[in-house]
What we know:
- The chain is mainly alpha-helical.
- It has 24 helices and 6 strands.
- The strands form 3 sheets. The protein has a two-stranded antiparallel ribbon. A two-stranded antiparallel sheet has the order 3-4.
- The longest helix is centred in the middle third of the chain and has 27 residues, at 185-211.
Amino acid sequence: MDQRIPHSSGLQSSGAGYDSPAPLAPDLRSEDARDKPSRNDSLTAQLSTVIGGPVGDHALIGRVGFWTPMRVLFLFTVVFLALGWFSKAGCIQQTGTADGSLTLDWNNGRQYVAMCYSDTVPLYGAERLNEGAFPYKKKWVEQTPEGDRETRYMEYPVLSGLYQYAAMQVAKSWDATPLLPGALQVVIYFNVIAFGLALAWLVTVWASATLAGRRVWDAALIACSPLVIVHAFTNFDALATAFAATGLLAWARRRPVLAGVLLGLGGAAKLYPLLLLGPIVVLAMRSDPMQRTPSAHLGIRLRDVDSWDSLMLWVRETPYRTSILSSRPLGAAGLTVAAGIGTWIAVNLPILALYPTGWREFFRLNTTRHADPDSIYNVITSFTGWPGFDGNLSHAEPPTILNLVSLLVFVAACALIGYIGLTAPRRPRLAQLCFLVIAAFLLTNKVWSPQYSLWLVPLAVLALPHRRILLAWMTIDALVWVPRMFYYLGLDRKGLPEQWFTGTVIVRDVAVIALCALIVRQIYRPEEDLVRREFTDDPVAGIIDRAPDPLLPWLPAPLRPRPAPARG
């Protein structure tokens, strides 16, 4: 029964025979294509009850004036970054000494007991930044565990080293200004570093949310990741994630040169963004770069289009954008690779020319470095007593065989990922291949510093947006920090045995391998891919998005795409 509210109640007529409690908006458009997690994800639906429940059936999506999705994501990010700062705050507490001066309170292994350790704090003195020295120029002598002496320089890539130098200059300027609140220079330095890293992670969230397209709320997993609390300020890796995410965004927006520049800058901060160039090239190859003209793809000649009707039929059957762009992906990928390598060289060349020995320190240390506690090689040693490929080595003696094995295994993994990218029944999404490459690098490398896990967070969310699965992995990875800190504390101070730590590393590695397996499964079964529902191809692919996906007859038969098997 139509029980209408009388007009005398002050309600306005909607113009359709019914009354509205207020005048209707002049623009009734709704962003209905946007993913609605509160309606299609059980976990988010349960969480949404705190703020009123799932979005309504007739809600106008995308019409909020202030609390847009991006601003909500920024709010989430700031909250979790604040939690990350508080998790490190215990290591910048000051205490008095016998002579009345101030020093950091790291007594009795507090940095491990409070689990607040951050590389940025000890590096202020270890890299001689407290002396105002310029990185790569300053050198000093350290004693090795064997009692020898070695000359040392700044051990970080150029952009990370210059970032530390800039933060040191700000800290010293702050400390020299009497009107500003005072503290130990290392405390000011940490806060300056943390502020810049927080901005970098906000950029990472922004770029990733933009790349997510209609699934913008997936980026909440990046903003609210447990790994942000633990590792956002452990080291300088947020700089690299910002460049990597914006580089992929530039590629998605079809600006290949800018994409290469940003990835090259990221490679000058941490090398891993340069690895993302590989998946771009593979997918560009997959898009049939050997086609020369649209008519070659159609099997007709343009001069055969002799009337307006035949021209419209040709345009409808083969969209202009797709047919024209089909001959350009490999060229765009080449521009990106050239710009990326060129940018990396341009950033590194001045330091290399002025301070060649200091510039080489990063590469020297990575060559002579032994298996990291987090690496699979050390895990095997921990549980089996295996001495490693090179046996017992001195501090400065490089593990030559280990270096070669880890490189060859990674190259083999990349070859397998390239094979998957070329032979899958449907062209994989760029984020899927990027995640597989970075995960392979971490799993096969001799070094997996704990903060490296931040590299995987944006790529995992874009590649496999299954919220419960990702939260489970992120939680496992974040909790590895607890046994790590108590293992470093030492058994003499009631710490944990090594196997408690390496056991959790195994769980973490298995979780990452499981993510890789799920991504490979969705590559071969794209109908299970949440991103590719609702007629979406690949929002990260840029020039390759919705491009033709031919059989690549110019490739050898084993490398051509294979038709999907029929399923019942």
